[in-house]
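Section 5.1 Outputs to date
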Amino acid sequence: MAADTWLVVGLGNPGEKYAKNRHNVGQFVVDELAKRIGANFSRHTKANARVAEGRTAPGGPKLVLAKSNGYMNTSGGPVSQLVDYYGVDVDHVVVVHDELDLPFDTLKLKVGGGHGGHNGLRDISAALGDPGYLRVRVGIGRPPGRQDAADFVLKDFAGSERDVLPVLVGDAADAVELIALEGMQAAQLRVHTAAGA
């Protein structure tokens, strides 16, 4: 395996109907990273996913950015196919996803753990047979009042949130680059300290 290759998966659902949903914030982040490395997404020949590849800088780590062509709860198959294809170890898989248990505009980096009811993470952990991959958890907050969480994540961001969203997405993309460049511990220290965590 090329030790400097990182598989970065942005979770979400396919199609215009879901494109701007809270549940798709992981895909916003890999879109931002693709822009930064000057790469375009194209259909992968061996996985049900679209992939963009490039380096963070000349001689820097290689990022394989991925978005599944399937729905959130079937994310595991495409991720395991890409892991096999690129020969990356689980500790070089970064999954970027929405997180109900964090306030909106908050980021946390985590290694392994449970899925916390997130169907995308549940399916990836089952498919890989190892939950030890890295997570960039992008806070979307809890639904207001009695709104069901499943409905909340499939709604677009509110107007006030949309003003802040580009900064949040940029911060999450920075966090991914930090992980690839300096490792998870250094990235956690920087990101969590900046957040006052």
